Amino acid sequence: MLFRQxxxxxxCLISASxxxxxxxxxxxxxxxxxxxxxxxxLALETKAYPTSQNGPVTIATFRFYLSALRLTYTxxxxxxxxxxxxxxxxxxxxxxxxxxxxxPTKPLRSxxxxxxxxxxxxxxxxxxxDLEPGRGMYWAWHSGYINAKLEGRSPACANPRKAxxxxxxxxxxxxxxxxxxxxxxxxxxGASLVIRADAARWLGQLKLADNxxxxxxGAAAMRVADGYAGMFSIGAGDEE
Length: 240
Hints:
This protein is mainly beta. Helices cover 14% and strands 36% of the residues. The protein has helices at residues 2-14, 119-123, 199-203, 219-229; strands at 29-37, 40-41, 48-49, 57-73, 78-80, 85-89, 97-100, 108-115, 138-139, 144-153, 163-169, 179-184, 192-198, 213-214, 232-234. The chain is globular, with a radius of gyration of 21 Å.
């Protein structure tokens, strides 16, 4: 009888090198951002994507800040991530996933966040981590952060290089380009979420033949910011 009781423990010890026994999943909510172009995983530089008004488009840079993440649960309670700044870069896989380790894993109703960096953070100087100026998302001349970047090529662009570049920032009225986003979470999402960031949706709001470059805060930047606010949706859990 004693030997029979020991069998599960012996098997567990033998297999420990393959998978730790009694292992528990990481605490909190696992969030992954999936850079997409329409229904496809975004490929930088290597693929031309057909579009209705801008011709075949190649994406070179797709980068943006997510901040002020907030979870709203089905029981009405909420969780707000402290010091909430995440720089998402389509070129860097490691930037596209993070964990809200102190967030309860109760069923969710929605997730909300802002695209960009708030005015208080902008006016308090340069910071570290994802806000470190060396990450290429800080205007030294403007003393502020770039909320999002989209760069690439299209035959619709009027310039000789056929290049477009949108570096969107601005935190002072009337040109605040921070944009709030709220997404409803499907029932049964578990403790992980995939959020699609669709460059095609953003680009679909831009007519490159008319304007292929916005690099300073202003009215044009505000219109481009409206486009990136609408590029997010909840994706499938197995989306790669």
